[in-house]
Amino acid sequence: MFPYHYRGKTLLKTIKGRVLICAGEENWVDNRTIYVGHREPPSGTEAYIPQRYPDNRIVSSKYTFWNFVPKNLFEQFRRIANFYFLIIFLVQLIIDTPTSPVTSGLPLFFVITVTAIKQGYEDWLRHKADNAMNQCPVHFIQHGKLVRKQSRKLRVGDILMVKENETFPCDLIFLSSSRGDGTCFVTTASLDGESSHKTYYAVQDTKAFHNEQDIDALHATIEFFLVSGVAIYTGMETKMALNYQSKSQKRSAVEKSMNVFLVVYLCILISKALINTTLKYVWQSDPFNDEPWYNQKTDSYKASFKDPGILRAFTDFLAFMVLFNYIIPVSMYVTVEMQKFLGSYFLTWDEEMFDEDTGEGPLVNTSDLNEELGQVEYVFTDKTGTLTENNMEFIECCIEGHKKDWGGFLVCFCFHFSYPFSKEELFFRALCLCHTVQVKEDDNIDGLKKAQLSGRSCVYISSSPDEVALVEGIQRYVCNLIVFRFELLEILSFDSVRRRMSVIVRSVAGDIFLFCKGADSSIFPRVTEGKIDQIRSRVERNAVEGLRTLCVAYKKFTRKEYDCVCKLLQNAKIALHDREKKLAEAYEQIEKDLILLGATAVEDQLQEKAADTIEALQKAGIKVWVLTGDKMETAAATCYACKLFRRNTQLLELTTKKIEEQSLHDVLFDLSKTVLKHSGNLTRDNFSGLSTDMQDYGLIIDGAALSLIMKPREDGSSGNYRERFLEICRNCSAVLCCRMAPLQKAQIVKLIKLSKEHPITLAIGDGANDVSMILEAHVGIGITGKEGRQAARNSDYAIPKFKHLKKMLLVHGHFYYVRISELVQYFFYKNVCFIFPQFLYQFFCGFSQQPLYDTAYLTLYNISFTSLPILLYSLMEQHVSTDMLKREPSLYRDIAKNALLRWRVFIYWTFLGLFDAVVFFFGAYFLFDNTTVTSNGQMFGNWTFGTLVFTVLVFTVTLKLALDTHYWTWINHFVIWGSLLFYIIFSLLWGGIIWPFLSYQRMYYVFMQMLSSGPAWLGIILLITVSLLPDVLKTHKIKPLARRQVFFNQIQSNSLQKQFHSNIKRRLYECLFN
Amino acid sequence: MAVNYNAKEEADGHTSGVGVAGGGAAGGAGKSRKPDNTAFKQQRLPAWQPILTAGTVLPAFFIIGLIFIPIGIGIFVTSNNIREYEIDYTGTDSSSPCNKCLNVSWNSTPPCTCTINFTLDQPFETNVFMYYGLSNFYQNHRRYVKSRDDSQLNGDNSSLLNPSKECEPYRTSENKPIAPCGAIANSMFNDTLELFHIDNETRIPITLNKKGIAWWTDKNVKFRNPFGTTNNLTALFQGTTKPVNWPKPVYMLDSEQDNNGFINEDFIVWMRTAALPTFRKLYRLIERKNNLQPTLQAGKYSLDITYNYPVYSFDGRKRMILSTISWMGGKNPFLGIAYITVGSICFFLGVVLLVIHHKYGNRNNSADIPN
């Protein structure tokens, strides 16, 4: 039944790829004068200066074989942490420092090497991809011959031929195509994510050159469907390459906190060094302290610092810095990165997040944001394809105001078509003709299973699922029988501003029709005839039911009118400047005075468990916003269906209609008054999301109203509106934004992101129109759904279905956050414990920078003795069970607002570290103070003292982690007890042999002698116990009390729900004491 | 990067193609992407989840209390039973017999000697350990700690003649390498202490055993005299010179061959640098002769000091300490008191928390039941 034109067109439909642009569209570059085919400019033209343009080589790799080492090192040392360690290392090399350069050089070398290998490997992959791209063959026309060359040899001005289904190697100006009308269809999926086929028009002057002969006088036959173009931007200047570079890096809140803490620790470090340097000079002011007879300075030292000036003090300061530098451990970065990288596998491995239908699981595109999943406060979700299935079914149409259900009516309409056409016929004709659906035979792309199942021979593809539904619906029920030929004259293609499309066709009888189909809001104003009121009421009723509606209208042209239209369009199409604008104007002129035919309704089913997921998210304290391009009523109905709005939700509307009635200012003022009246209530009950007696607000805003709010005003008072708007939003439990353009979605996300609380936002969507908001939000999640994979590819994480968001946030996000925050805090804690005794020791060794611990201990503490337990903890820990987290979404609130990395918590950990360090040091001090601790009267020296402190330290920090571990798998047992065992074995070995390669043997038998002493054992046990005591108290007493409060709140809020299963209650109680 | 992008797209297209084809045939290819259902990957490894409720923590507190308090009492009693006697013989006080020696310098000849009399009120029953103690002496100063050459002390002949740079400025003297080099060796304690029991005005010398005061491993492994064909230390140390402050070279530290040179125990003891600026070092052992008599009876004693070691210049102090030793070392009340304190705190906390828990637990239950 389809007119041939469509079939004809589809043959040339998929020239994928890199884009076709025309000069003049770009405002970032000046005009280019290019001589096509590198002909010499005819003499007499104005002076032409040949310009140098880059070749078409694509370089996405960062390094070459030669510059890898220097460039990679430079890149790595640009990271502030690495640079810091490099400085420490250099200081150790240059000046006489207490610890050997090995202590910081070795870990740094390790970290740098591992990173370099990783980056080198990635770059090698990029080189491979680049090469594949650069070497792929392209067809040139050179001196009248068709030449095959590698893509990278392409130069600006070359004429090239691109066959069907090939990718454009660079930006081209479209000269001609093998199609008579000089058009081609291009997918720009890799550029802007729109998978629809766009029509491009050849330059008017060259459009007639149908083959190479015309272009270069040779080669007469056309074997393929071809387009020819002249290269205009090549290589790294192409739109694609330019686009790609602007992608910015997202950083998580945890990482930001971590950096703040690092600065704090850097301050602590500097102040420690300053204090010690100052005290050193105070202490040394007594000459007998500075240089007693038994401890003379070396001649070289005296020579280099003749006068005790700034330089000497600075050297001392640096030496102290080196001594204490371990407080900022190089290993933390490595551990955090490993935790993120390895941890992200648990997400992809999750069986429950695997979708059987599509055979897809979650994808992790960046592991940097894992913990951000536990911090989400706002979820911005697309509606179609995300909340709903995007599985459209044409269920109703209404012609001339009469509702037609499927079933009986096909009989009614199929067979009588008299001339002139009846309205019904015209209606179906319009539906049949006015679309961009293409027929794809025996092909497999997204969403085709359905077609195979239903046993149809051909498959329809379109960028709009509504159209597919319509065409399929018609094919199924109506008109396989109707065969009419229409000649397609023009397509006035769809765009999101006009929200409609039209076709101009000529029937066999020679009548010229314009069929127009589009959103009701864009059709009704242009309609002059037809049963407008009936259809409008029907459309509205359908919309309330959550159906997607489209209106259909037509218009008949006379020959003369058509010529006029034709000219108008032609002029617009070939315009070099402002083509879009001119086309839009032309369309505007053409699509008016229409006659309304009817409306269609397409149902889009809700995704499974969408309501459940939204409910859980709301209970978890997350505000869910729906951003959609649909009309308000449809979107609102979906919101009710998925329980975003509940029965008792009071809806506030901020729509164009309302703003037309009152001024924007008044509307905003009224709304905020309504909302704030109850805000006292709201904040009080905020804690328990379940309370049913509180007033719930839902806000509905449309694109036009939003742009009014966002629009900067002349007097600069737009901030005021924004603030008010944000305040209203903050007090609404759910917000629905309808009629949104893709860019507006991103705008909304940005608005919330930058509001004064700086909430963490998450955007989820499946279509190319969601890409902008996915990129804008803190966390962008793509649905690997039907509208292509564009969203999934640009997202940070991709999941198969919306329902998987629940587990992703509530379980994985929660775990990730708890794990990494413990990791960060623990790392700072264990290094305070490690370094603070050394600081205290300076007070007892004349501020001489004498290290307390042996070099081996200093080096290996963070690398081996205490590294694995925390890494495995941060991968395996489950403080609450998965089931519990799923069942009780409110547990998510416990970690909201970066709760575990707040200053209070950070200070607690730091003070715990200080306390432990003081216990270690002074415990050992009083144990050793002027007495003997052996049963044979022999004395221990300073290395035994340090080893005792170190032993207590290693045991305490490891056992502290053991106390915090709530989930003891065999792996945890293995690494925790294994680490301690390793420490003991290492110490025995390290002190057991006279190491031939060492210049000193200070640790010889120190550890064993220490273990042979009873008081040392007793001291170690005592000090470990004391150090862990506050933590035992805190973990098992204070935390339960705080959590119990949450528990009671929940109980109270649940008091209306009398059915509170006793076993859930018991589990909750267990969890409190957990 | 753009290329990656395209390449990836192709890869995606490829795999999805496979997925669909497989889905049509048997669904096998689709299944292969499904994650394994292993306990590890699904984060369902069998795990011990200790639920540390009040019920388990409270007994822990009581148990710690009940264990620590008796241990503490035991240590405390042991520590109190240890006899310890300490004399400061620096001579800062003008009335002190050693006051005359206060400003002594190294190598003063003849050496300054002084005698201090003292009385032990109670007998020292078991073996007595004689220590010397120094105060305000920073043996743990970094410059000092590293000023030694362990290879030289280990008998390495090349290090003997070419000591480590770390020994500066005590590395060479008169163009000859110093053995043993370094500040530690150079400043070796060289007072001589002798103990006499005064029984009816007669001074009975008390035998002071000078062996067994250093770690066995130090004496036998870590410290060794240079190797050579001869046993004559003088020959072995040929080509080296004595440390600047020493009156005599290292091979004349003792008359006995197995306590001479680097393996002289006084030397080894000194070379183990102390952790804190106030320290003591083992000087001599006084062994109990028989079971009938205490090692040191109560009564009058005198300590003869050959005062060589100057400490006044850096405001230091010198002491002589006599101490008995138990299984837990010398007198140190800290450990016992600490154990008793910690034990008591745990016990106390246990009681307090028990009370709180009792009250809270009741409230909790009452809140639960109405549902």
Automatic annotation (TrEMBL), chain A:
Recorded GO CC terms: endoplasmic reticulum; plasma membrane; recycling endosome
Pfam families membership: Cation_ATPase, E1-E2_ATPase, PhoLip_ATPase_C, PhoLip_ATPase_N
Xref: SUPFAM superfamilies: Calcium ATPase, transduction domain A, Calcium ATPase, transmembrane domain M, HAD-like, Metal cation-transporting ATPase, ATP-binding domain N
Binding site for ATP: D382, K383, T384, E467, F494, K517, R548, T628, G629, D630, R739, K745, N769, D770
Ranges of residues in domain P-type ATPase A: 135-198
Active site: D382
Domain of life from the UniProt record: Eukaryota
The keyword Cytoplasm appears for this protein: no
Main location: membrane
Residue stretches in coiled coil: none
Similarity remark: Belongs to the cation transport ATPase (P-type) (TC 3.A.3) family. Type IV subfamily.
PANTHER family for this protein: PHOSPHOLIPID-TRANSPORTING ATPASE IH, PROBABLE PHOSPHOLIPID-TRANSPORTING ATPASE
Name under which the protein is recorded: Phospholipid-transporting ATPase
UniProt organism field: Chelydra serpentina
Lineage of producing organism: Eukaryota, Metazoa, Chordata, Craniata, Vertebrata
UniProtKB/TrEMBL annotation, chain B:
Start and end residues of each stretch annotated as Disordered: 1-36
Keyword Heme in record: no
Topology class, membrane: Multi-pass membrane protein
Keywords of the record: Cell membrane, Cytoplasmic vesicle, Disulfide bond, Glycoprotein, Golgi apparatus, Lipid transport, Membrane, Transmembrane, Transmembrane helix, Transport
Residue stretches of biased makeup (Gly residues): 19-30
Pfam entry (one): CDC50
A GO CC annotation given for this chain: apical plasma membrane
InterPro entries: CDC50/LEM3_fam
This protein's record includes keyword Disulfide bond: yes
Major subcellular site: membrane
A GO biological-process term: phospholipid translocation
Residue stretches spanning the membrane: 51-77, 334-356
Compartments, as annotated in UniProt: Apical cell membrane; Cytoplasmic vesicle, Secretory vesicle membrane; Golgi apparatus; Membrane
PANTHER family: CELL CYCLE CONTROL PROTEIN 50 (PTHR10926), CELL CYCLE CONTROL PROTEIN 50A (PTHR10926:SF17)
Family of the protein in this entry: Belongs to the CDC50/LEM3 family.
Protein name: Cell cycle control protein
Organism: Chelydra serpentina
